[in-house]
Amino acid sequence: MLQRERERAVTGGFNGLYIVFVGATPKHHCLIPDVNLTEEWRNAIIPITAVGGEEVQSQCSRYKLDVVRNLSAEGYIPRKDVNLTSLEQEGCLDGWNYSKEIYQSNIVTEWDLVCSNQWKVPFASSTLFVGYLFGSLISGQFSDRFGRKKVVFISLAAQCVAVLLQSFSYSWRMFCIMFLFVGASQISIYISAFVLGTELLSKTMRVVFTALGAFLFYCIGYMTLPWIAYGIREWRTLLAVLSMTSVIYLPLWWFIPESPRWLITQGRVKEAEVIVRDAARKNKVEAPPVIFKETLSLPPERKYTMLDVVKSKNIRCITLMCLILWMAINIGYFGLSLNTSNLSGNPFMNCFLSAAAEVPAYIVSTWLLKKCKRKALLSTFLIIGGGVILLIQFIPATLHYVALALEMTGKFGFTMAFSIVYIYTAEIYPTVLRNVGMGMCSSAARIGSIIAPYVIYLGTYNKVVPYILMGSLTIASCVVNFFLPETLNKDLPETVEQMQEYHGKCRCGVKKTKYLENGRSDSLSIQQEDKHDM
């Protein structure tokens, strides 16, 4: 089962960040129509501007064509007979000429998303994360109601169709609309599959599944993406090929079981027992005569929603702190991921290095999560990720390899935090609220993801501004982490009451559990305080 979940994570890496290539802006300048100009004037009609201390051709203006044509016809020589700085300029009225050195075509070259339309590129990137937001909100509700397995595979089919339709986009608007569906379906796969794996596996294997089964294999797909894009430089063909990667996982429906924990919450104890006994048989373990107590066979009294998360002061406070953490981590993680096409050097290699920086993070996190406390780990790597990013502003432009190394180190820190916060949050929430809680946290993360493209866009005005914003926010967010409960070596809570009992000492200003001398919790006091909170 773990291997099958890993395979599904690979396709998420394929379809998650192709906007890095599909939305990259190649070198460009104003298109000069086929008019009667001398070679000297054709070479001089594009103004020269200074960018970062380097002289380059203007990307959004040219000298007025009618004036240049008259000067060329009269035999004047640019820079010798005419001072070019005194000539009137105009916009790129005839379109743009794009370099095909790296990309044969993408959405920027097809729909001229440059100059006054440059804002449409980060907007298109954000639509993916808006889709993530909607998917996060609805996937938790759907999988808690209809089951983890059904939502995973319906979302997998929806992702395949959405990416394929996006490859046929006839306008920028259609591309963005389809990107919404791509994002919604992809995050639904991610969250539901993560919760399914978490609920199927033991405490030890949960850590392995989170770091290696989900994240590492996502990373393998992410590392493969730049080489697929390198081989397919035309964006429509690239998207059509990527859409087909989802199809091969649909037959896994007949091999992956539903979550026994979810079945129990639905009163379907016999089905859960069949799955557990089958797992015991495959692992050559003898199952006990009675696996679940009779009390578990009672159907659930009520359905849990997002409203149940905010009713209790303790759960509400824990959730708020989780939302802040997820938002900050995602701004940094996706900000650095989307920034690879803006770095010096080959964009395909930069993307590969950015993905490769995640591999040691997932491997190290697997080992550390087995032995170390969650709070200490998360705070440490938030400080590493944010601190290194803040140092980039002090690196001279000539030492771009040093800046690149710091950025990859920052990516390592954010990836570690990303891996830890997933397992940490899943361990905090009870089974009846886990998918809802994960969905809410993921929604907060998507707000951060929506903001991330615009944080990177600020780099067009000042290259260090994105690093200052991402680094400062991350360092500040690690303070919140100190107030969350520790979950190391604790059983997953099944009910809201168990969550309050396990995490009663969370420093949220409310102490939910009172302990007696014999070590057992006073359930009456818990119930009374719950009623008061509601």
Strand and helix layout:
Blueprint: H1 2-16, H2 19-22, E1 28-30, H3 39-44, E2 48-51, E3 54-57, E4 61-63, H4 65-73, E5 89-91, E6 96-98, H5 107-111, H6 120-146, H7 148-166, H8 172-200, H9 203-231, H10 235-244, H11 260-265, H12 269-282, H13 306-311, H14 313-338, H15 347-356, H16 358-371, H17 374-391, H18 400-428, H19 431-457, H20 465-481, H21 496-502, H22 523-533
CATH superfamily of the domain at 306-502: MFS general substrate transporter like domains
Overall SS class: mainly alpha
What CATH architecture of the domain at 306-502 do you see? Up-down Bundle
Radius of gyration: 27 Å
Trace the largest sheet across and list its strands: 1-6
Which descriptor suits the 3D outline?
A: elongated
Spell the H/E element sequence: HHEHEEEHEEHHHHHHHHHHHHHHHHHH
The CATH topology annotation of the domain at 306-502 reads as Growth Hormone, Chain: A
CATH class of the domain at 306-502: Mainly Alpha
Strands, count: 6
**Poorly predicted ranges:** 1-9, 509-534
Helix content: 55-70%
Quote the beta fraction: under 5%
How far apart, in Å, are the first and last alpha carbons? 40 Å
The biggest beta sheet is recorded as: 2 strands, antiparallel
Overall mean confidence score, pLDDT: 80
Count of individual helical segments: 22
